[in-house]
Amino acid sequence: MRRLLLPLLLINALLLAACGESEPEALADAQPIEAGDSCHVCGMLIGEHPGPKGEAFMEKQGEALKFCSTMDLFAFVKQPENETQVSHAYVHDVAAAPWTTPDDKAFVLASEAIYVVGHDQRGAMGHTLASFAEQADAEVFREAHGGKLVGFAEIDVELLGRLGRGELGGNVDQGVGGMPGHD
Predict the structure, then answer these.
(1) pLDDT at 169
(2) What is the model's pLDDT at position 108?
(3) Letter string b/e over residues 131-145, b meaning 16 or more CB atoms within 10 A of that residue's CB
(4) How many CB atoms neighbour CB 127 within 10 A?
(5) Consecutive 10-residue runs of the chain (183 residues): their mean pLDDT?
(6) Which residues pair with 116 in a beta bridge?
(7) What is the separation, in whole angstroms, between the first and last Cα of the chain?
(8) Most exposed: 64, 76, 82, 105, by fewest CB within 10 Å?
(9) Does residue 142 sit in helix, strand or coil?
(10) Strand partners, 58
(11) pLDDT value at position 2?
């Protein structure tokens, strides 16, 4: 009986270990912004506005929710009722194309991007977060357009509110703080 017990325990341990190591689910790929796509938050036509856009995928949903700006994306994603249900999100890498025409081949995971807030560029709804795949590109943008670098974990409802109210800068001479010229 003892000889049989050890092999059974080893087999059981291996089976339990295999159960705990499930293969991670593949993330849905970013979808191109099509003519006529409207923003999930504000309903505006996405392609008619400058600046980086975003997409979010909810758990158990294959369709991308599309947003006219990174500001609208995060306004949706960072709401408590949505935050726990979002599988993943994408943002445009601003370094890959001109501000006015983001490149849909340059979407990066929002959780891995670096952002510049308080810069002097505007998106669909006014101020938006400039998103980058590489920190070096974000720093070059910040040197040219002002602002402050933040990571995904630093973006919360409070920061978004401050951006929306114009409390973060947008003038290179003043840096983060003032909002001259902002409507």
Answers:
(1) 74
(2) 97
(3) bbbeeebbeebbeeb
(4) 29
(5) 48 49 73 95 94 94 93 96 95 96 96 97 91 98 97 96 85 36 32
(6) 130, 149
(7) 82
(8) 105
(9) helix
(10) 86
(11) 53
- What letter represents residue 64's amino acid? A
Alpha carbons within 13 A on the beta-carbon side of 31: 15
Compute φ and ψ for 147, nearest 5 degrees: 105, -165
pLDDT for 26 equals: 84
Structural contact between residues 77 and 89, judged by C-beta atoms closer than 8 angstroms? yes
Length of the chain: 183
| Residue 158: exposure state from Cβ atoms within 10 A (0-12, 13-18, ≥19) | exposed
Q: Is 54 in contact with 90 (CB distance < 8 Å)? A: yes
For 52-111, what is the HEC assignment? CCEEEEECCCCCCEEECCHHHHHHHHCCHHHHCCEEEEEEECHHHCCCCCCCHHHEEEHH
Round to whole Å and give the CA distance between 179 and 165: 10
Question: pTM to 2 decimals?
Answer: 0.79
User: Strands 130-132, 114-117: parallel, antiparallel or unpaired by DSSP?
Assistant: antiparallel
Handedness of CA 54, 132, 112, 159 (dihedral sign): negative
